[in-house]
Design a protein that fits this description.
heterodimer; A: about 190 residues; 6-stranded antiparallel β-sheet; B: about 190 residues; alpha+beta; 4-stranded mixed β-sheet
């Protein structure tokens, strides 16, 4: 009886550990699969032939069809530059220097990956339609209420995630280039909360 | 319980957890019910081009779709022969990417690389591509690119990033004229 109890306890523990660690590495990634640059993370091998099983599982679960990092890169942020969760009832300034790439676009979603409904019907800003300063730098404000300049509305969502898509040849090419990217990716600063 | 046997219980549990971990990670892609291929299967017929409706809060064909990119997709099946994908290229920004059903992006080319305003792709299974349709066509006509697909089925996606919201309608119109078909007769004629 005692043996049976031990076996069941072992199995339940193993199941929790095995599934939990699998889920964590597929959802959140690890230093082997993802690069973290400030608040931004990127799955380095997404879409690539011969990618590791964690990346393959992550892509399958996400329902996306990413282009490999040679041609495009996708940076995800769920926190601000201080590491705090992005919340729709707070206001954030996202500012970055000129990006010398073919095209980039910054879009905001809820955590389920859905666009956020808003009266302005504005869901993203791109290299071609964001207002930028004469030096090419840009500033985008995430806020529920209208703001001057590049205003990205956060509507009635709760937690937010940002996706920065970068197309074309870029100044960083692989994991070893991650340090270069840190100077180019925008900062996310919290301005105030409601 | 002795010290020794509690250690063996811990080790055995960890070993079991490791096996469960590995199985989870390896098996998940096969059973992920909501991967892109499954979602697209529900929307489109095989060997037919479909311009996905613009992503809005009310409707998104795929999660995390870009609101400022327009997508045309073709789920191709090569079991009855090669498939031809024809599209105009309006901007250097456009990207044409080819995937296996599990989401491996085996070939990508951008409008900027192609340097032409329209293009034909012949998608053929890897083994046949080079021998049967490959070299001879490329010699004869310029605007054909032969893609050798590692699998019999897959997905081709034409991505058209919008330079601004005002480009949406025109871009959708151009994409709607792109096509995906089993009929490669036009190309055969040129070849003869």
């Amino acid at each position: 009886m005692r043996l049976l109890f031990t076996l069941i306890a072992m199995f339940v523990t193993a199941l929790a550990l095995g599934l939990g660690s699998g889920w964590y590495l597929i959802e959140q990634g690890s230093s082997l699969t993802t690069a973290r640059i400030g608040p931004w993370s990127v799955w380095l091998a997404a879409g690539r032939p011969g990618a590791d099983p964690y990346t393959v599982a992550h892509v399958a679960r996400s329902g996306r069809l990413p282009i490999t990092s040679t041609n495009a890169m996708y940076f995800f942020a769920r926190t601000d530059s201080e590491g705090e969760q992005l919340l729709a009832n707070c206001e954030y300034a996202i500012s970055g220097p000129r990006l010398e790439v073919t095209w980039w676009s910054l879009a905001v979603y809820d955590l389920a990956g859905r666009l956020i409904s808003n009266k302005a019907e504005r869901y993203s800003f791109s290299k071609t339609d964001a207002l930028s300063a004469t030096d090419g730098s840009y500033r985008i404000v995430l806020s529920r209420t209208a703001r001057a300049g590049n205003w990205l509305p956060t509507g009635e969502a709760k937690r937010l995630q940002l996706v920065l898509r970068v197309y074309g040849p870029h100044p960083w090419t692989d994991s070893s280039g991650a340090t270069d990217a840190s100077a180019l990716l925008p900062e996310i600063r919290k301005l105030r909360c409601q | 319980m002795s010290m020794k046997s509690s250690w063996s219980i811990v080790l055995a549990t960890l070993a079991m957890a490791g096996v469960i971990h590995i199985i989870t990670v390896l098996v998940l892609p096969t059973f992920a019910p909501q991967n892109a291929a499954t979602r697209l299967l529900a929307l489109t017929e095989t060997n037919k081009m479909l311009v996905l409706p613009a992503a809005t809060p009310a409707h998104q064909s795929l999660p995390l779709m870009a609101p400022d990119i327009r997508y045309a997709v073709c789920r191709f099946d090569l079991r009855n022969g090669p498939v031809r994908l024809s599209t105009a290229i309006e901007e250097d920004l456009w990207v044409i990417a080819f995937y296996t059903l599990s989401g491996v992006n085996f070939y990508t080319i951008s409008g900027g690389d192609l340097k032409r305003d329209k293009i034909d792709f012949i998608i053929a299974p890897q083994a046949e591509a080079a021998v049967e349709v490959g070299a001879s066509i490329l010699d004869e006509i310029e605007d054909v690119v032969v893609i050798s697909s590692p699998e019999q089925q897959g997905i081709a996606v034409v991505r058209a990033p919008l330079p601004g919201p005002s480009y949406a309608q025109r871009t959708e119109l151009v994409l709607s004229r792109s096509s995906c078909t089993h009929d490669i007769s036009g190309i055969d004629r040129i070849r003869q």
